[in-house]
Amino acid sequence: MTAFEPKAIGPKSVTSTMQMVLLALLPGCLVFTYQNGWGSVINLVLAVLSAIAFEALALKLRKRSVISALSDYSAIVTAVLIALCLPPLLPWWIPVLACGFAILLAKHAFGGIGYNLFNPAMVGYAIILISFPTELSLWLAQPDGFSTSLNDSIGTVFNGGLAALPQWDALTGATALDQYRDLRLQGTDTDLITTQTQGLFGARQSEWINLAYLLGGAWLLRMRVINWHIPISLLATLAICTLLHNALLSNTLSVSINLFGGATMLCAFFISTDPVSAATSNRGRIIYACLTGFLVYLIRSYGAFPDGVAFAVLLSNCATPALDRFDSWLSRSPNET
Amino acid sequence: MTGAYKLHGGLAFEPALFGAIETLPLPEHIGIQIDRHATPAITVGDHVLKGQVLCEGEPDQALHHASVSGEVTGISQGVISIKSDGQDNDFISPRVNAPSALQINALCKQYGLVGLGGAAFPVNKKLDSIQHHTPDTLLINAAECDPAIYCDEALMQERTEDIVKGIELALAASSARQCIVGIEENKTEAIAKLLKHLPAEIKLVSVPALYPSGAENTLFSLCTGQTGGLRKHHSLCFNIATCYAIYKAVILAEPLISRVVTVITESTVRNFELRIGTPITDLCNHLSQPLHSAITCGGQMMGWPVTSEQYIDKRTNSLIFHPPRADKAVACIRCGACADVCPEKLLPQQLLWHAKPHNRQALLSLDLHNCIECACCDVVCPSHIPLTEYFIHAKKKIRSDNTEQKKAELAKIRYEARLARLQNQSKRERKKLDAKSADLSNSKNKDQLKKDLIAKALQKSKSKKQQPPEKNTDGDRS
């Protein structure tokens, strides 16, 4: 009775915010690990453990309380987001390296939680994506469903990864976005590829994981951990740009593949909604998300990388300070200026 | 009854159940806090009656009255202590029949009436402030100013008729063009009773049951749709409890010597009608709360800590025993929950960012001055940052900087004036000097003239000596 608790507000602490984000990632994690097998479970474990270790190291170097800062779960969220971007059966040091860049460079070099200019997970992922493009394009051709044993997977991970296996070519296959990119760069008619990769309501295979992220994201919205402004504007911009492109220019990816393919839903609900690196006000966030959506569309339709999420998010992060200024300029009443 | 305009943000709370207004037994001694500059009208050892004036206030401060009859036992550190004689004898004042607006104003002053919403601004001062023009709106604040305060609601449920009379008196005293009673929509019993008794010309507006609907400027914009505050629109606001006090003062000739206080313990929410000056210790004993327990006065959102050694004063609208302790603050993650609840549509996290290094220009352009210090942002902040504290501090700093700047400007003007004066003076002096030196150069010629004159005179006298002297002049000299 001593304190009357307000109704209908978001999470009560940073820790519970991060815990809820992790909980919302759970359906996505389940689908992801089912599709990619033990290889992705090992990625998750490696990423989480190394992120915690790097976080502790950074806090120790910065002479901060290690335990109280670690208990905010933010490093774990970063690690999980990185692991969910990585293909399975990578050499063990790639996820570790990604987490190292994310935690040490993107987060603590800028001042730790709350001060990072860029989304740490995307910085870590983008650096290894540029450094090891081959390894990071080796996705399994068929869902694994834990058919490869845990022992075999551990053996592969600690002996050079999937790329070192003799039969890697047979096991892997291009994702929908990969196939589209390859055909586009060859100048082939892309109609064909759209029909080949179309699943029930999105890109074949990755539609399910996108659906799982959408469910988790909807729950986050309901629990007021995130606001609608970023995910809705991002998805709407991506869909509108794709529609306009298909209507006015040439055939590009279909709207359904663009929305339910690649890392779209992960980006819309979990990555670009990272409040630290997003714009400040709700109006600023709408502009920020529209920019991200537009960049995702641009990179997917014209870029050298099949999925543009990481770069789109990082570029929008660059624009954030300018967007904040623009927004405060907009909100200033005309008689003051 | 009409609906209200929309409130941005705000917080919804589950209303608590509370009982009827209770009283405490007559306290053995009381302590009346008087203003620092007030001069006591009584001395130690005097016998005072209940309702007797205790001090001659400054013109802009309210009078204080004894809330029990008894002996004055001490006057120290701004507190007049009175030991009750157990008789509770009244100091009888004459009643005024059918008072005019000016008489109501004078009675409010005579009986020490202040706003009972929390700020304790003297009622007569508030009425004086609108003397020069007819106020547009008289707003009656029937919305509670804090989610943990129920004293006004209890009062409205039990003393509706008296309150309505008080509202009519306030309207007569202010001669406002319209009168609006703003009340939260979930106070159904109070609304029903008010609707039954309110005259037709007084409008009842039900506002959303969101904190801070009870903040007077917020309530004003909710009821009228006008933004920018009461003062901008030549309006004034009285709390419902103040109206009740006006009724008691004007009709019953009773000074303000008691008020309703919401008292919240770990298990109960109760309302007490307490005499001003009741020691909080008495309340602790009555509720069997330990004397050293942490107590917050003024509500859970904007309250301040008090101790059991203090006394109930006119500002005490609620006491919360065992308030929750604040969590440790961590870094802002820019989540924006603060902006979503801010009733003034500010960006608290941006304000915090600029308040820490006190970036004055940015704070002004982010409209820090519009912050009503409602502390909604503090409550929702997942990082537990005491944002409002930062803002209060920053506002104070800006205010003191402004006065400093004004002082500096004044000093500059004075300095420049002095410089100009000194320059003028030196100019004048130089002129004088110039004139003198001109005189001096002239005076050389004068010397010559003098010499010439003397020489002439000598010559004359020599020539005279050679002639025989005249008798007349000789006789005069001798």
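Residues 473-478 of chain B have pLDDT under 50 and may be disordered.
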